[in-house]
Design a protein that fits this description.
- By secondary structure, this protein is an alpha/beta fold.
- It contains 16 helices and eight strands.
- The strands form two sheets. Strands 2-1-3-4 form a four-stranded mixed beta sheet, covered by helices on one side.
- The longest helix has 32 residues.
- The protein is globular.
- The two termini are 37 Å apart.
Length: 446
C-alpha cells in the first residue's frame, strides 16, 4: 500500500517531497489539503499533524510524520534502492544535513518573509530589502557550489530537491538569478531543471506563481510600466517562440490576435506596422515596432531581462546562439514550410517520404549540435532553444515523430524543454496548429 502525503502543490516543501518520490520511483497517494478552506485546522488533520502544516506523510503502516526535510530523508532511507541520495557515510550525510538545515533555516525564511505579507497583509511589491535578502542566500549557494555540481558535493542528494523547490520559486517569481554574479547557482538550477524528477516541481511552481501574481500589482513582477504588444496567431511557431521567451523573463505582453484567414494581416493598418505582413509583430511601449521572431526575442531579452543569460553579451557565446537562430530560420523552418504551405495554398493532403527525409536531416544536425550538451548552443539555455522548440515540437508532434534511437540527444532535449515552466506558452498554440493541419491532411501520424 502506498504512503499517503497530504499536500498543496504550490508549497515548495511539498514539491521537494514529490521530486524525491519521483527520483526513487515511489508512488505516493496524494491528498490535497485546502488551506483556504481551513482543512488543515480540522480535528482530523490536527490529529495527524498538530503543527497543521503541509506536507504530512502517513506511511503504509500508519506511521505519521511531517516536515519535508524529515519526510524526504525517511522516504529515501526506507524506500530507495540505495543510499545515494542520503548517504550512510557520516561525513557525506553531515554535509547533506547541513544543506537541508541551510534551506529550512536560512533560505526558506527569506521566501516566507516576502510571501507571507503578500498573502496575509496586503503587501503588493517586492522591495530592495527583500531582493538583498534573497541575493544573500544566492551568494552562499554560489560558494557551496564552487567546484561542485550539486549542493552537497559531487553527488545529487535530497538537499538538491529541497533547495530547488525554494530557489526555483525565488528565481522565477521574485528575484531572477543573475548568471553573471551567480554562475554556479545558475548552472546548478539548469542541471536540476534537466532532470526527469524536476517535472514534479513544475505544476506547483506555476500554481505558486499564479497565486502570488493574483495578489500583487503586475508591475512589481515585470519591468515595464506599460506592456509591449505582440500581434499573434497562437498556432504560429514563431509566435510561440516569442511567448515562451516573454514567459521565461517574466515579461507580461499584451497579445492582439491577427486572423490570417480573414486577411487581417493585409489590412492597411497592419501593413503600416509590418509591410512584410507576418506574425509576430512587436510594438514596444515607446512605439518602437519590429517583426521577425528572432529579432523580437533577442530584443526583448536585451531590453527586459534581468541578465544576459538567455542571449549572452560574450561575443563567442552570442555567435553560437546567433548561428542556431539562423539554422532554425534558414534550415529548419523552411522544411516545415515546405510541407505546410502547399497544404494551405495548393490543397496538398499528404506528407511525402521526401518531406520526412528533409525533416530528419534537420533532426540529425540538431542531434550533432546537442552531443555532449544539454542545450542547443552549449551548456546554457538560450533564446535559440525557445526558437527551435517551437518548430521541433510542431514537427515531432504533428508531422514526423523523433526516433529516440536515432536521435537520443534531441529527444532528451525536447523532454527537458517540456519540463520547464516557460514551455507552457507553447502548449495551446501547438494544439491549435495540430488541429489545423489535421483538418487539412490525411496521413498525419497523430
Amino acid at each position: 500500500m502506498a504512503p499517503t502525503v497530504y499536500l498543496i502543490y504550490a508549497s515548495p516543501p511539498v514539491r521537494a517531497v514529490l521530486m524525491t518520490a519521483k527520483a526513487i520511483g515511489l508512488t505516493l497517494t496524494e491528498k490535497q489539503v485546502n488551506l483556504l478552506a481551513g482543512d488543515h485546522l480540522k480535528p482530523e488533520y490536527l490529529k495527524l499533524n498538530p503543527q497543521h502544516t503541509v506536507p504530512t506523510l502517513v506511511d503504509d503502516d500508519g506511521f505519521t510524520i511531517w516536515d519535508s526535510h524529515v519526510i524526504i530523508t525517511y522516504l529515501v532511507s526506507k524506500y530507495a534502492k540505495n543510499d545515494a541520495l542520503y548517504p550512510k557515510d557520516l561525513k557525506k550525510r553531515a554535509v547533506v544535513d547541513q544543506r537541508l538545515h541551510f534551506e529550512s533555516g536560512f533560505v526558506f525564511p527569506r521566501l516566507a518573509a516576502i510571501s507571507r505579507p503578500i498573502f496575509f497583509e496586503g503587501k503588493k511589491t517586492i522591495n530592495q530589502k527583500d531582493k538583498e535578502s534573497v541575493c544573500e542566500a544566492y551568494g552562499f549557494l554560489e560558494t557551496f557550489l564552487n567546484g561542485h555540481q550539486w549542493v552537497a558535493g559531487d553527488f545529487i542528494s535530497v538537499a538538491d530537491y529541497s533547495l530547488v523547490s525554494v530557489i526555483s520559486s525565488l528565481n522565477y517569481i521574485m528575484v531572477p538569478i543573475d548568471a553573471g554574479k551567480y554562475p554556479n547557482l545558475h548552472a546548478w538550477l539548469q542541471r536540476m531543471e534537466g532532470r526527469p524528477e524536476y517535472a514534479a516541481n513544475v505544476k506547483g511552481l506555476e500554481d505558486y506563481s499564479k497565486l502570488l501574481k493574483s495578489k500583487m500589482h503586475s508591475a512589481s513582477l515585470t519591468k515595464p510600466d506599460m506592456a509591449p504588444t505582440v500581434y499573434v496567431t497562437h498556432a504560429s511557431p514563431p509566435v510561440r517562440a516569442v511567448l515562451i521567451t516573454a514567459k521565461a523573463i517574466g515579461l507580461a505582453v499584451a497579445e492582439k490576435e491577427v486572423n490570417l484567414f480573414a486577411g487581417e494581416h493585409l489590412k492597411p493598418e497592419y501593413l503600416k506596422l509590418n509591410p512584410q505582413h507576418t506574425v509576430p509583430t512587436l510594438v514596444d511601449d515607446d512605439g518602437f515596432t519590429i517583426w521577425d521572431s528572432h529579432a523580437i526575442i533577442t530584443y526583448l531579452v536585451s531590453k527586459y531581462a534581468n541578465n544576459d543569460a538567455l542571449y549572452p553579451k560574450d561575443l563567442k557565446k552570442r555567435a553560437v546562439v546567433d548561428q542556431r537562430l539562423h539554422f532554425e530560420s534558414g534550415f529548419v523552418t523552411p522544411r516545415l514550410g515546405a510541407v505546410v504551405l502547399p497544404v494551405y495554398l495548393e490543397g496538398k493532403k499528404t506528407i511525402t517520404e521526401q518531406d520526412k527525409e528533409r525533416i530528419c536531416e534537420a533532426y540529425a544536425f540538431l542531434e550533432t549540435f546537442l552531443n555532449g550538451h544539454q542545450w542547443v548552443a552549449g551548456d546554457f539555455i538560450s533564446v535559440a532553444d525557445y526558437s527551435l522548440v517551437a518548430i521541433i515540437s510542431s514537427l515531432h508532434y504533428i508531422l514526423v515523430p523523433i526516433d529516440e534511437e536515432k536521435y537520443p540527444n534531441l529527444q532528451a532535449w525536447l523532454k527537458r524543454m517540456e519540463g520547464r515552466p516557460e514551455y507552457e506558452a507553447n502548449v495551446k498554440g501547438l494544439e491549435d496548429y495540430r488541429q489545423l493541419l489535421k483538418s487539412k491532411m490525411t496521413n498525419l501520424p497523430c
